[in-house]
Structure formats: structure tokens, C-alpha cells
Amino acid sequence: MATASERYFSDFQERLIVEAIQKAELQTSGEIRIHVEPICSATSPVDRAKEIFVQLKMERTQERNGILFYFAYESKKFAVWGDKGIHEKVSQSFWELIKNESLNEFKEGRIVDGLVASILKCGDELRRYFPYQKDDTNELPNEISY
Known about the structure:
Largest sheet: 3 strands, mixed
Strand content: 5-15%
């Protein structure tokens, strides 16, 4: 868990984001995570999202249906990365839509609103292809990683 000085979001903002993740995951076996850092150290935010995805062991979900939101606030970089299972089900245009809708909110200073809306939209898409089953377990933590 990140200390207060390492975090970008306030406790209240983090709670809103985590609640959106929990709500989205109630409908699906899919997993959603958020990773936040100041600087994007890779050539592109997508490359960094892929690195973080592996560091967080998100590729280890049973159905390969994890989605990572990557946000580098000082670099102003953002990416959404979906694992193989969900990526095979949705088109590239879905990922572009999620990214662009988030970025539109970010440009207006509504970062938390943008993330929450996109998390819920991803939850709806995951539900279409990976509906919640009564024996589903939460395979990954819901908290924001830093």
C-alpha cells in the first residue's frame, strides 16, 4: 500500500475508484486494476502498461480477462491494456473508445470521473463475454497500485 505522500489521489477519490472496480467486477469474472505513477519510463504508455500488467501478475487470471488502466500524471500519459482473453473478444475500436472517453474527461480536469466511467464501461463489456459465475473469486486486488 502506498503512503499518502506517494499517492496521487485523495482517500475519497481512491474510494470512488475502488468502488467502481468492485461494482464492475460484481458482474463479471474479469479483473480491473489501476496503476498510477508520476513518469512514464517507457517509449509509450502502452509499452509501460504491458510492463506493469506483468509486474502485477495480471496475466495469471484463469480466463486471461484482466484490464489495466495506466496513468502517468506528470508525463500526462494514459493507456488501457486488456489481456488476451478480453482482447480477442472486443475490437481495437473498443480500447480506443475507452481511452478517448477517459482523455476527454481528463482534459476537463475530471480524472476520477473519467476513470470511474471507463471502469464501469469495461465492466459492462467484460460482463458480455465473461459473466459472473457463483463460484467466481476475486483473483486480483482492487486497490490502486503505485
